[in-house]
């Protein structure tokens, strides 16, 4: 994560002399958001996804789910997995803007106090895990969904990690997953908040520099 921040500093520095850089490009960073998600994926891949036997490897996918600025429905602006491919569900989202309305993320958006959700085994009927497309539960066997919050505890989105091994994520390990995922979630909150700020900015007059600048 520190390496990612160093890259962001370098990018900002290189942009200072670039007259073609827009305000959005200068102050917000979609690539940083994607880099955070990729960094989270790399943790799971490095520590839990390796095995001498290919059939014993655990496949992980990490996504950041949030509301679209275009239609205010849930989408996936950042994702990472072993194959570098976009989630299959995004194809359906392109055709149906409410496609993610039955997801755990959608349920968290409805909560007064957003909280972590752990689904040890998506195949268990008691979990009531909605399958978005045929065969999804064969690929997503266990999942953790962590809320990304701003300073006022308002939901900005969710950091979702799932894998193809049942009971990889368990509720008895909730404390560990909270501590780990918060490392990435707080950084996602910063990047999302900067984009929210820029979206809300209109012409507000000239910039007034803060002392001592």
Describe the structure.
- This protein has 213 residues and is an alpha+beta fold.
- It has helices at residues 2-15, 23-27, 30-48, 89-95, 104-109, 136-139, 174-200, and strands at 60-67, 74-81, 117-119, 142-149, 155-163.
- The protein has a five-stranded antiparallel β-sheet.
- β4 (142-149) and β5 (155-163) form a beta hairpin.
- α3 (30-48) packs antiparallel against α7.
- The radius of gyration is 19 Å and the shape is globular.
- The protein starts with a helix and ends in a 13-residue tail after the last helix.
- The model has no long low-confidence stretch (mean pLDDT 86).
Tally the helices: 7
Radius of gyration: 19 Å
Distance between the termini: 30 Å
Question: Overall mean pLDDT score?
Answer: 86
Largest sheet: 5 strands, antiparallel
Secondary-structure-derived class: alpha+beta
Order of helices and strands: HHHEEHHEHEEH
**In order across it, which strands form the biggest sheet?**
2-1-5-4-3
Provide the β-strand percentage band. Answer: 15-25%
Please mark out the parts with pLDDT under 50 across 5 or more consecutive residues, or reply none: none
Instruction: Compute the number of strand runs.
Output: 5
Helix amount: 25-40%
- Identify the overall geometry: globular
């Amino acid at each position: 994560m520190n390496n990612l921040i160093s890259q962001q500093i370098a990018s900002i520095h290189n942009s200072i002399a670039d007259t073609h850089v827009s305000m959005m490009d200068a102050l917000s960073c979609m690539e940083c958001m994607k880099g955070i998600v990729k960094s989270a994926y790399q943790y799971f891949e490095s520590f839990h996804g390796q095995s001498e036997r290919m059939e014993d490897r655990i496949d992980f996918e990490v996504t950041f789910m949030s509301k679209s600025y275009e239609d205010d429905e849930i989408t996936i602006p950042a994702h990472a997995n072993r194959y570098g491919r976009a989630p299959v569900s995004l194809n359906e989202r392109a055709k149906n803007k409410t496609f993610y309305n039955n997801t755990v993320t959608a349920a968290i958006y409805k909560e007064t106090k957003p909280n972590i959700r752990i689904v040890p085994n998506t195949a268990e009927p008691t979990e009531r895990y909605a399958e978005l497309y045929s065969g999804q539960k064969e690929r997503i066997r266990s999942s953790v969904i962590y809320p990304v919050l701003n300073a006022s505890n308002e939901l900005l989105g969710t950091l979702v990690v799932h894998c193809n091994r049942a009971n990889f994520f368990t509720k008895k390990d909730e404390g560990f997953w909270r501590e780990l995922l918060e490392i990435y979630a707080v950084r996602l909150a910063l990047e999302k908040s900067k984009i929210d700020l820029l979206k809300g900015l209109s012409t507000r007059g000239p910039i007034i520099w803060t002392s001592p600048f």
